[in-house]
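Anyone up for a design puzzle?
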């Protein structure tokens, strides 16, 4: 972020990476229409979930425009806003733009995000869409955060993937995803953590843009999710964007504070859990709030 860039983009990126650590610890709630999973309890009552997230003061929140227009002013005032522009699914059953950059400017966004599932027959189209968003965002000095996920398929068909699709965390696939996002002009790249500290360090060191990790599938324990995050920070990641491992927990605010301690203070999972006051709820017995509200209890 030290090269010359437009003033507007520089200011917006500084807001996202404003913490003295220079890292970003953000929360994403843009999942619902991207997947086939129905109404997850942590997203059922978004006003309560967003209020609980805002109480923990993340560095930013990523969401779609509808929830932002309906809820953000009263639930998340003062926290940087990243607006997701794409609805997409790993199996290519959906991939559409639902927000343009001018709308994002009108809504007060600090950045726009774009999900891109790559590898396979549709990879070129996904990267072209990301490049077009970067071009459009350049007119407004709006940063682009690329959420790039490399895929593995049982069978690759002419029109995309069939026969089952999963997200790859192989180092070579994550490295490919990072490079593709940078080549088309993304300002920040979010990818899965590859699970190997040395490999991820090499990926980060060869990338001229900030790399942050995705929170990944909901872990069996908070300690496991925090440990993955800590390893990525030690390998040079500039932060993380976490979804269900925060809003899918019973105590949303406290869980977010534990992630903040790891990302910004270098805390161990045990230290972060203790600081957040989670105590005995930190292991695999910490389940979703059965009420589905996302409220602290």
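Challenge accepted. My sequence:
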């Amino acid at each position: 972020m030290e090269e010359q860039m437009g003033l507007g983009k520089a200011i917006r990126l500084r807001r996202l990476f404003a913490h003295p650590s220079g890292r970003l610890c953000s929360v994403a709630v843009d999942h619902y229409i991207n997947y086939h999973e129905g109404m997850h309890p942590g997203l059922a009552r978004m006003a309560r979930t967003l209020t609980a997230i805002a109480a923990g003061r993340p560095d930013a929140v990523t969401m779609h425009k509808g929830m932002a227009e309906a809820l953000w002013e009263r639930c998340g005032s003062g926290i940087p806003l990243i607006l997701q522009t794409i609805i997409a699914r790993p199996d290519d059953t959906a991939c559409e733009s639902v927000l343009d950059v001018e709308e994002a400017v009108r809504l007060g966004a600090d950045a726009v995000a774009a999900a891109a599932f790559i590898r396979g027959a549709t990879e070129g189209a996904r990267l072209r869409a990301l490049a077009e968003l970067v071009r459009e965002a350049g007119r407004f000095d709006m940063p682009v955060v690329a959420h790039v996920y490399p895929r593995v398929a049982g069978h690759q068909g002419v029109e995309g993937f069939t026969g089952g699709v999963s997200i790859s965390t192989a180092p070579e696939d994550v490295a490919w995803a990072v490079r593709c996002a940078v080549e088309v002009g993304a300002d920040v790249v979010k990818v899965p953590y590859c699970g190997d500290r040395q490999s991820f360090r090499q990926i980060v060191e060869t990338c001229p843009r900030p790399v942050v990790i995705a929170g990944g599938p909901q872990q069996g324990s908070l300690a496991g999710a925090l440990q993955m995050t800590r390893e990525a920070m030690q390998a040079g990641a500039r932060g993380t964007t976490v979804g269900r491992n925060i809003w899918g927990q019973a105590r949303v605010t406290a869980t977010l504070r534990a992630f903040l301690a790891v990302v910004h203070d270098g805390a161990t999972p045990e230290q972060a859990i203790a600081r957040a006051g989670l105590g005995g709820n930190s292991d695999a017995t910490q389940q979703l709030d059965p009420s589905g509200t996302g409220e602290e209890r």
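A detail worth pointing out: The longest strand covers residues 144-157.
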